[in-house]
Write a structure and sequence with these properties.
By secondary structure, the chain is an alpha+beta fold. Helices cover 36% and strands 8% of the residues. The chain binds glutathione.
């Protein structure tokens, strides 16, 4: 775990001493958008037109932020248009690497050994964390964007004119509601589990834990009333919540001490998670071996002996049966 400072790698853990024991996630820096016509998107510069074979993704199968992108790629049927490299689940002193292991897919551009080398290819003086996902332009040889929330927005529509699969997960008329749910879920759940797990003070841990479970209790109630987070149709908001929920009992409950309740104790949330898991092409994006190996091995301050638990046993194939659960 570390970061680049003016193009040099430094092996440093997150510094919570200046923030009172609180984990603060840093801002993402590459913010260009792929668009159907190559015009600029909401941020960044122009020149990234949607074209088959032009873009490449660097992901970790362990990472919930990268996972959203893999899911959107699968939902939109972009597997043949956008290629993927997968890092080794262990994030060590050099950060993410491409060290060979089952499921790892090497860097096609110049066989980088570490992900930070990919960042340096885009900017030899880069300063910041080296995170997945990374959306890479094979034509211009640079990073388009490394912010998952923006990458999923572009994949949702930019390739529609060149045979992406039908489906709009962020329809204009629902956008305000989707954005509102996203920001609440991001703060309390997606990033919430990290704020709990990386807290280095008891009071911060307790505060963040209460926020997380208050939010899960509210989501449980909501999903007892309606099928999806923003009404009757599945949207981006659901997929963003899913990637945290699917890791909850296997990792966050024990490794991050998010243990007031298990996800499988929540009737609606658990059935919802199974429903989304069973969605066409989604189960293939879930890799519990990478998920568990990453978290339990990569945070020695939390799990010094690096024991990876064998459980829990989760029956994700059990029918979701949500029609019967929804009490209108
Ligand atoms: N804002 C980013 C966050 C991505 C992120 O934090 N990824 C983690 C993996 S789960 C990472 O690569 N961390 C490495 C580090 O912070 O050094 C996004 O959503 O794309």
């Amino acid at each position: 775990m570390g970061l680049l400072i003016d193009g040099k790698w430094h092996d440093k853990w997150y510094d919570t001493s200046s923030t009172g024991g609180r984990f603060v996630r840093s801002e993402t820096q590459f913010r260009n958008w792929i668009t159907s016509d190559g015009k600029p998107g909401p941020s960044g510069t122009a020149g990234f037109r949607a074209e088959p074979g032009r873009y490449h993704l660097y992901v970790s199968l362990a990472c919930p932020w990268a996972h959203r992108v893999l899911i959107m790629r699968a939902l939109k049927g972009l597997e043949n248009m956008i290629s993927v490299s997968v890092v080794n689940p262990y994030m060590g002193e050099n950060g993410w690497s491409f060290d060979p292991a089952p499921g790892v897919v090497a860097d096609p551009v110049d066989a980088a050994q570490y992900l930070y080398q990919v960042y340096l290819r885009a900017n030899p003086h880069y300063t910041g964390r080296v995170t997945v996902p990374v959306l890479w332009d094979l034509q211009r040889n640079t990073i388009v964007n490394n912010e998952s929330s923006e990458i999923i927005r572009m994949l949702n529509s930019a390739f529609d004119g060149i045979c992406a699969r039908e489906g709009d997960y962020a329809p204009q008329e629902r956008l305000a509601d989707i954005n509102a749910v996203n920001s609440e879920v991001y703060d309390t759940v997606n990033n919430g589990v990290y704020k709990v797990g990386f807290a280095t003070s008891q009071s911060v841990y307790e505060q963040e834990l209460n926020k997380l479970f208050t939010s899960l209790d509210q989501l449980e109630a909501k999903l007892g009333q309606q099928r999806y987070l923003v009404g009757d149709d599945i949207t981006e908001a659901d997929w963003r919540l899913f990637t945290t929920l699917i890791r909850f009992d296997a990792v966050y409950y024990s490794h991050f001490k998010c243990n007031l309740r298990r996800l499988s104790d929540y009737e609606n949330l658990w059935a919802y998670t199974r429903e989304l898991y069973q969605w066409q092409n989604v189960a293939e994006t879930v890799n519990f071996e990478h998920i568990k190996n990453h978290y339990y091995l990569s945070h020695p301050s939390i799990n010094p002996n690096g024991i990876v638990p064998l459980g829990p046993i989760l029956d994700l194939d059990q029918p979701a049966d949500r029609n019967n659960l929804i009490k209108r």
